[in-house]
Amino acid sequence: MTTGRWPRVAAVAALSASLLGGCAGTVIDDNFSALEAYGTEKLGTPPRWLQSDGERSRMAAEVERMLAKPLSLADAQRIAVGYSPAFQVVLAEAAAASADATRSARVANPVLRFEHLWREHDGERDLDIGRALSFSLFDVLLLPARREQAEFRQRQTRLKAAAALVAKVGELRQAWVEAVAAGQLADYRAAVAEAAEVGAELARRMQQVGNFSRLQRAREQLAYADAVAGLARARHTATAAREALTRVLGLPAGLAARLQLPAHLPDPPAKLPDDSDEALRSARDERLDLRLARAELDRLAAAMGLTRVTSVVDGMHLSLQNNSESGEVRQRGYEIELPLPIFDFGDATRAGARARYMAALHGVAEVARRAGSELREARAAYRSAWALERHYREEVVPLRETISEEMLYQYNGMLIGIFELLADGRSRVGAVIAAIEARRDLWLADAALKGAMLGSPIPPPAMQTGAAVADAGGGH
User: CB within 8 A of 122, min separation 6: which ones?
Assistant: First the structure.
C-alpha cells in the first residue's frame, strides 16, 4: 500500500464511524423531544431544558408572573419541571448518558505511529523512517452489535428520564397539597384561638362579678391555652410545608417570599376514576419501572451473543506499515495482532453473562408482581380516602352544623348559657379539622395513585382523621 492511500483509508474509517455512530447532539435532542411528548401526554406538563442565559431569564420572568397570584397546582408543576435546578440536573445527566451511549457505538480512532531514527558512523548518517497506521479490526467487525447495545442504552436513558419526570411531579403534587392544607388548617386554628380567647376573657369577667366559679373559669382558660398551642403547632407545620414546597419548586429566597398559596384545596372529583382490574393491568404493563426492567433484559439478551465472541477473542488490531531506510528499498506491509485464548477460554465471562441474564429475567417478574401490589394498594387507599372525605363533607360536618344551629336556638331561647354554646363550638372544631385533613388525604392518595400507575410509586397517606376528632372534641 502506498503512502498516498493512507489518508483515504483514515477518511473512509472516520466517515463510516460517524455514519454508524450517529450524531450525539441529534440523539440528545430526540430523547428530550420524547420526554416532552411523554410529559404532555401523561402529566399535562412538558419539561423545559434551560441551556442558555436567555432561556433561564425568560423562564424566571414566567415564574414571576405565575407567583403574582395564588399558585395553582398546574403552575407549580410547570415551575418544578421547567425552572427547578434539581430537575435541570436530571436533564443534563440524561444528556450526558445519551452522549456516552452514542460514543460507545463508534469505532475507536486509528493510531498513527511515526518513527524518525538515525545513526552516524564515520561522518555518514543513516536514516530510518517508520510509519504505521493501526486500528482495531475487532471494533469494526462488531460495530453492528455495538450499535444495537448503544440503542438499548438510549432506550434506558429515555425511560430513566421519564421516571425522573414522574417522580418530580409526584413529589411536587404531594408538597403542594401538604402546603395548601397546612395553611388552611393554620387559618382555621387562628379563628378557633380567637374565639377561645373571647370565651376565656368572658369567663374572667364573670368570675370577677361572682357569676362564675373558679373551676368554670379554669376550664375556659384551659380551652384557650389548648387553642393557642394548637395554633402554634399549625403555624409551624404550615411554615415547614411551605418551605418543603419551595425546595421542590427550586425557588430562590426572593421568589420564595412572593409565593402565595390558595386558601383551600380544590373540590374533590364527583366520582371515582376508572380503577378496574383491567385498567390497573393495562397501567401495570405501561409502568416505567417495568419497561425499564424489560429493556435491561433485552439488552442483556442481545449482549449474550456478543459475549460468546468476546469471551474467546477480545481484540484484533490491524497495522499498515510503510518504512524507509537510507540506501534501502522502501518497505511496505501490514501487521495483525490477535490475542490467543490459551490461559483464559472465556468460560467465566460466559457464565457471568448467563447469570446476569437470569437475574434480569427474575427481576422483571419481581417488578411486575410488586407493581401489581402497589397498584392495588394505591387503589384501595384512594377509594378509602374518597369515601372518607365524602363522609365528612356530606355527613359529619352537616350534622355538626345542625347541632350548632340548634344550640344557638336554645341559647336565644335562654335554655342554655353562653358557655354551653362555646363548648359546642369547640366540639365542632374537631369535625371541621377532620374534614380538611380528609380532603388533604384524598388529594395525597390521588397523587400516590397516579404515581403508582406511571411507575414511580409514592407512599399513600396514613388516614388518621378519626384521631383528630377525638383529640379536638374530647375533654371540653
Answer: none
Fill in the DSSP letter of residue 211. S
- pLDDT in the model for residue 68: 94
User: Distances in Å between the alpha carbon of 247 and those of 123, 146, 402, 457?
Assistant: 79, 41, 42, 20
Neighbours of 178 (CB within 10 A): 21
* Domain span holding position 280: 267-311+347-476
In a domain, 434, yes or no: yes
SS3 for 215? helix
227 burial via Cβ count (<10 Å: 0-12, 13-18, 19+) = buried
* C-alpha cell, 388: 372518607
163: cell is 421516571
Q: How far apart are CA 461 and CA 443, in angstroms?
A: 9
The answer for residues whose C-beta is within 8 angstroms of residue 434's C-beta and 6 or more apart is: 392, 396, 465, 466, 468, 469, 472
Dihedrals phi, psi of 131, to nearest 5 degrees: -130, 135
Q: What is the percentage of the chain residues whose pLDDT exceeds 90?
A: 37
Question: Using the 8-state DSSP alphabet, how is residue 388 labeled?
Answer: H
The reply to whether 108 falls in a domain is no
pLDDT tens digit string along 78-116? 999 999 999 999 999 999 999 988 888 888 788 888 888
CA distance 204 to 239: 33
Beta strands per DSSP E along 251-301: none
Q: Distance of CA 51 to CAs 9, 38, 86, 166, 247, Å?
A: 38, 20, 14, 22, 21
Question: What residues pair up with 118 in beta bridges, in sequence order?
Answer: 127
- The whole-number pLDDT of residue 345 equals 64
User: Quick check: 115 and 86 in contact, CB under 8 A?
Assistant: no
Closest CA to 13 of 152, 140, 123, 179: 140
Place of cell 386558601: 263
Contact present, 280 and 379 (Cβ < 8 Å): yes
283 is a domain residue: yes
Amino acid at 196: A
Q: Which residues of 365-375 are buried (b: 16+ CB within 10 A; e: fewer)?
A: eebbeebbebb
Rounded Cα gap, residues 331 and 333, in angstroms: 7
- What is the tally of structural domains in the chain? 1
